C-alpha cells in the first residue's frame, strides 16, 4: 500500500490529525473492561494485515511530521539522545535491524543496498540517499543510533545486559511519557522503574526482567502501555513539563473530545546480534477522545476502564484532576451493553450506541 | 542527633549502612561534617597506619580529633568541589586491596561513590554510612543545574529559579535526586516549604 504522509504539527497549533484509516488501526490498549498492570507480553511476529502489529517497525501517515518534530526537540535539547561509549556496537546493530526491516517490509519507501561493508541507504519519504561504511562511524553524519533513530518513529532505549540486569545505557527519547533519559541513563531495570506505583509490589518488574533477559535473536516480543495527554503533544518530557503542564488545565466540557488524547505505546523488544544488547522501541500513538468514540466498543470500554481505575494509577498517569470531566464526557458513550473480548474495534459485529 | 533512619522508599533511592573496619592493603576515608564521627567510631590504629582521610568540615569542629587518629595522610578542604581532583587522583592511584569508607551527607557519599565507580573501584570495596544533615543534592530536571544541600520541599532552583518539589528518584551517575516544577499546572501556587522528612 502507499501511505499518504500528513503535513502536521505536534506543538503550537497542533494540526495533527488521524485519518479514518489511522483511527481503525489505532492500538486500543484495553482487551477487557478494566485495567491493572500485568506482564502483558506476546511475541512480535506480525499481526492482521494493515494493523500496527503487521511489520517489525510500523510506518504510518505521521512518519514525516514526527521526524520533523524529533529534529526540533533535538535542536532544543541534544541531551535527549545519548549513548555511552560501550554502546556504539549496539547502535550499529540497531541501524542494521531497522534498515533491513524497513527495506524488506516497505520496499516502495526504503532501499538498502549492501556490498560487503559498503552500504547505501535510501529513505524516500525523508529524501535521504546516503552511502557509508558499516561499522565505520566516520562515514555517517551522526553516531549509528542517532542516525537511524532520526529516521524511525518512536523512542528507542538501548539496554546493555550484564550482571543479570538490563542497563539503560543509550537512547533516543523525544516522545516520552514524562521520564528523562538524561536522568535515567546508566540506571538498571529496577532503578529506572522505581517511581512506578503498585507494580513493584505485584512482582511485575521481577517477572518482566526475567522474561526480557531471555529474549532471543529473531524472536522479538511486544506489549502495549498507555497514558493520557492533553493536546497531541509528542514531547511530554519532564524537561519541558514547566511549559506543557499548564495545558492540562485547558480542558473544558466543550473541547475535551478534541483535546484529550489517549496515548498508547507499542513497546517492542529485540535482541541485537553483535552486542547482545536489547533494543526497546517505544512507539507512541495518539488518538483524540472524539475519534475513539467513533468505535462503539471503544467508547463503552474506555468509560468503564477510566471510571474503575485505581486512584494511584490515575495520579501516576497524571489525569486525576481531569478524571471527573473525562467521565462526564465518556459516560454518554456507554449504553451499558456488553463488549467483545480483545482490543480490536469489531465494527462489523459490535452493536451501535443505543440512543 | 547525627544518625537518622530514612523512611522506606523507592528502588532507585540509595540505602546506607554502618561502617565496619575491614582488612585492606590501604584505607581511603572520605567524609564531610558529622561523617567525622563515623570515622572516629570505626578507626583502629592498624587501619590508621595505612589510611588516607579526606575531610570537608563544613563548619564542624572535628578536624583536631581526626588528626589525633594519626592517619598516614590527612587532608581537610573547604568544599567537595575543592577536594574533587584530589579525590579522583586518590581513586586513580588506588591499588588492589583498597578499602573505601564514605560517610557524612548524601551529597558527599554520592559524589565520591560516583568517582570511585568511574575509577573502576569494585562496589564490594566501598562502604557508606550516613551522618549529620539529611539535606539532598538536587538536579533540576528543567535546567539541569545542581542545587547542593537542599533541606526543604519545595525549594527554589539555584540556577533557573523555578519552584521544584523533591523526588526520591535518584541518579547515581549524577549523584543527585530529581527536582520537578511544582506549580506548572497552577503557576504561583507553591505550598509552604517544609523539611524533606516532615
UniProtKB/TrEMBL annotation, chain A:
This is DUF3445 domain-containing protein.
TrEMBL record, chain B:
Keywords: 2Fe-2S, Flavoprotein, Iron, Iron-sulfur, Metal-binding, Oxidoreductase. Residues 9-126 form the Dimethylamine monooxygenase subunit DmmA-like N-terminal domain. The keyword Iron applies. Signal peptide: none annotated. Pfam families: DmmA-like_C, DmmA-like_N. InterPro entries: DmmA-like_C, DmmA-like_N. It comes from the Bacteria. Residues 137-180 form the Dimethylamine monooxygenase subunit DmmA-like C-terminal domain. The keyword Flavoprotein applies. GO terms for molecular function: 2 iron, 2 sulfur cluster binding; metal ion binding; oxidoreductase activity. This is Uncharacterized protein. It comes from Octadecabacter ascidiaceicola.
Amino acid at each position: 500500500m502507499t501511505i499518504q504522509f500528513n503535513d502536521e504539527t505536534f506543538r503550537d497549533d497542533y494540526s495533527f490529525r488521524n485519518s479514518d484509516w489511522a483511527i481503525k488501526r489505532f492500538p486500543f490498549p484495553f482487551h477487557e473492561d478494566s485495567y491493572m498492570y500485568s506482564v502483558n507480553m506476546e511475541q512480535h511476529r506480525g499481526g492482521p494485515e494493515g494493523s500496527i502489529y503487521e511489520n517489525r517497525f510500523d510506518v504510518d501517515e505521521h512518519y514525516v511530521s514526527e521526524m520533523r518534530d524529533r529534529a526540533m526537540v533535538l535542536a532544543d535539547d541534544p541531551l535527549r539522545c545519548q549513548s555511552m561509549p560501550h554502546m556504539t556496537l549496539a547502535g550499529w546493530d540497531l541501524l542494521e535491524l531497522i534498515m533491513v526491516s524497513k527495506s524488506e517490509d516497505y520496499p516502495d519507501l526504503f532501499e538498502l543496498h549492501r556490498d560487503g561493508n559498503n552500504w547505501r541507504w535510501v529513505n524516500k519519504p525523508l529524501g535521504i540517499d546516503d552511502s557509508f561504511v558499516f561499522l565505520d562511524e566516520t562515514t555517517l553524519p551522526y553516531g549509528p543510533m542517532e542516525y537511524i533513530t532520526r529516521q524511525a518513529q518512536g523512542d528507542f532505549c538501548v539496554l546493555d545486559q550484564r550482571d543479570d540486569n538490563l542497563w539503560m545505557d543509550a537512547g533516543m527519547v523525544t516522545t516520552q511519557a514524562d521520564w528523562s533519559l538524561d536522568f535515567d541513563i546508566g540506571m538498571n531495570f529496577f532503578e529506572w522503574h522505581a517511581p512506578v506505583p503498585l507494580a513493584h509490589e505485584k512482582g511485575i518488574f521481577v517477572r518482566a526482567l526475567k522474561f526480557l533477559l531471555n529474549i532471543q535473536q529473531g524472536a522479538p516480543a511486544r506489549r502495549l502501555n498507555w497514558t493520557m495527554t492533553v493536546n497531541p503533544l509528542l514531547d511530554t518530557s519532564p524537561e519541558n513539563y514547566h511549559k506543557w503542564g499548564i495545558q492540562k488545565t485547558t480542558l473544558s466540557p466543550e473541547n475535551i473530545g478534541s483535546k484529550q488524547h489517549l496515548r498508547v505505546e507499542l513497546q517492542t523488544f529485540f535482541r541485537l546480534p553483535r552486542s547482545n544488547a536489547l533494543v526497546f522501541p517505544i512507539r507512541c500513538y495518539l488518538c483524540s477522545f472524539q475519534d475513539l468514540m467513533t468505535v462503539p466498543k471503544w467508547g463503552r470500554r474506555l468509560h468503564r476502564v477510566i471510571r474503575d481505575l485505581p486512584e494511584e494509577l490515575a495520579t501516576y498517569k497524571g489525569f486525576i484532576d481531569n478524571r471527573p470531566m473525562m467521565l462526564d464526557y465518556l459516560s454518554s458513550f456507554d449504553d451499558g451493553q456488553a463488549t467483545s473480548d480483545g482490543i480490536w474495534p469489531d465494527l462489523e459485529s459490535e452493536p451501535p450506541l443505543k440512543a | 542527633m547525627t544518625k537518622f533512619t530514612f523512611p522506606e522508599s523507592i528502588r532507585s533511592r540509595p540505602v546506607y549502612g554502618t561502617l565496619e573496619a575491614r582488612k585492606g592493603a590501604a584505607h581511603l576515608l572520605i567524609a564531610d561534617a558529622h561523617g567525622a564521627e563515623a570515622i572516629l567510631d570505626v578507626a583502629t590504629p592498624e587501619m590508621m597506619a595505612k589510611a588516607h582521610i579526606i575531610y570537608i568540615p563544613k563548619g564542624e569542629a572535628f578536624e583536631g580529633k581526626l588528626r589525633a587518629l594519626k592517619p598516614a595522610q590527612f587532608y581537610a578542604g573547604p568544599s567537595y568541589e575543592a577536594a574533587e581532583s584530589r579525590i579522583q587522583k586518590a581513586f586513580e592511584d588506588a591499588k588492589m586491596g583498597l578499602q573505601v569508607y564514605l560517610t557524612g551527607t548524601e551529597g558527599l557519599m554520592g559524589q565520591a561513590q560516583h568517582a570511585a565507580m568511574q575509577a573502576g573501584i569494585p562496589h564490594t570495596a566501598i562502604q557508606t554510612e550516613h551522618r549529620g544533615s539529611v539535606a539532598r543534592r538536587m538536579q533540576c530536571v528543567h535546567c539541569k543545574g545542581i542545587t547542593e544541600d537542599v533541606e526543604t520541599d519545595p525549594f527554589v532552583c539555584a540556577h533557573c529559579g523555578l519552584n521544584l518539589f523533591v523526588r526520591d528518584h535518584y541518579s547515581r551517575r549524577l549523584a543527585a535526586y530529581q527536582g520537578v516544577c511544582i506549580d506548572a499546572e497552577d503557576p504561583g501556587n507553591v505550598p509552604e516549604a517544609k523539611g524533606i522528612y516532615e
